[in-house]
Amino acid sequence: MPVYNRIADLQNDMQTWRRDIHKHPELGFEEIRTAQIVAEKLRDWGMEVHEGIGQTGVVGVLKGQGNSTKTIGIRADMDALPMQELTGVPHQSVHDGKMHACGHDGHTAILLGAAKYLCETRNFDGTVNFIFQPAEEGLGGGDAMVKDGLFERFPCDAVYGLHNMPDGPFGTFHIKKGSLMASADVARIHIKAKGGHAAHPQRSIDPIKVGVQLYNAVQTIVSRNVSPIDNVVISITEFHAGTAQNVIPHDAELTASIRTTTPEMRDYVEKRMAEICDGVAATFGVEIDLDYKRIFPCTVNHDAQTDIITRIASELVGPENVNTQAPVRMGSEDFSFMLEACPGAYIFLGSQDKDHQFAVHHPQYDFNDGILGLGASLWAKLVETELPRI
């Protein structure tokens, strides 16, 4: 049976925890209630608990039976998104403008379920660090925990993470070695031109014209500078200029979201963005300031740990239900900071069925509670297999 019998018995508990967290969503670095719930449960189950890691993160430390020095870290994210929920479910968010639209409520419940099972059984030899991370949604909570000494204070031989996958068939796992998810960078471009009267354009330098040219030039990075087999996305998502119909504005601002899947391509795109801004500025006689910020690195799975979690998943659901060549996803994930600091792997768990069709970040998305037991069993089996009692 894919789900451990004892974990199956915890299904109602995990669902209750998940729906309570869903009903009371908290944004990044504001997860006070959620972190308190997590910490209290871990303590009640007899675990050593550390709070305030990376501001609002929680780490539970559980030692098994024996004297092994081997360690494993398992991470779940806790934060919600700043968006209005439209599901209409009984456990819908009670906070306007805040919603668990990415399933972090489910990830937290899954890890809690695995923690409760392992606290009860202790059928392993070594140490498990249960990492409950804040602020995954664009604020860099993973980076904050690493910088707060996560792996120095709680050493891990390997660290693992999981995400629900609403477009994956229910109960299937999806993973690959190497780059699994893209980096996320933001470029803010400020064009300083020369404003004036709309009736006399010859006396001005129109920043809107410059911005349009810049928009088109930036798109050539993907279409003409990058190999078709490389994965790069550059989307201009904001273009602000002007305040009146008869005024040529003095400046304009553009914002771009940039996604790449290798460190080398990330460096190259940043370099080309700077070159294009300099070139367009020289062409039109304006000043262009580029503020390029790196937000999340690529999520890169380590080979050995990918093999380990793939084997565990295959034993759980059968190799026919584990896709080891998952396509690279152009979304980003700040578990990438942990993978830069410690060997590990990230895996997706399919959750799509007839009642769960909406993608993450959709106002009608709701986590599929049917995968709670399977996710918790994956973590339990990982610990018992990699930290065996001798």
Examine the coordinates and then state which fold CATH places here, giving the name of the CATH topology of the largest domain: Aminopeptidase
Helix content: 25-40%
Gross CATH architecture of the largest domain: 3-Layer(aba) Sandwich
Proportion in β-strands: 25-35%
Structural class: alpha/beta
Q: Report, as a whole number of angstroms, the end-to-end distance.
A: 25 Å
Regarding quaternary structure, what we see is single chain
pLDDT averaged over residues? 97
- What would you give as the CATH superfamily of the largest domain? Zn peptidases
* Outline type: elongated
Spans of at least 5 consecutive residues whose pLDDT stays below 50 are: none
What order do the SSEs take from the amino end to the carboxyl end, as H and E? Answer: HHHEEEHEHHEEEEEHEEEHEEHEHEH
Whole-number count of domains: 2
Largest sheet entry: 8 strands, mixed
Q: Widest sheet: strand order?
A: 1-2-4-3-5-16-6-15
- Text of the CATH class of the largest domain: Alpha Beta
Query: Total helix count?
Result: 11
**How many β-strand stretches?**
16
> How much is the radius of gyration in Å?
24 Å
Task: Give a concise summary.
This protein is an alpha/beta fold and about 400 residues long. The protein is built from 11 helices and 16 strands.
Task: Tell me about this structure.
This protein is α/β, with parallel strands linked by helices and 390 residues long. The chain folds into 2 domains: 5-180 and 299-386, 3-Layer(aba) Sandwich (Aminopeptidase), CATH 3.40.630.10; 184-296, Alpha-Beta Plaits (2-Layer Sandwich), CATH 3.30.70.360. Helix content is 35%, strand content 26%. It contains 11 helices and 16 strands. The strands form 4 sheets. It has an 8-stranded mixed beta sheet, sandwiched between helices. α2 (11-23) packs antiparallel against α4 and α4 packs across α11. The radius of gyration is 24 Å and the shape is elongated. The two termini are 25 Å apart. 47% of the residues are buried.
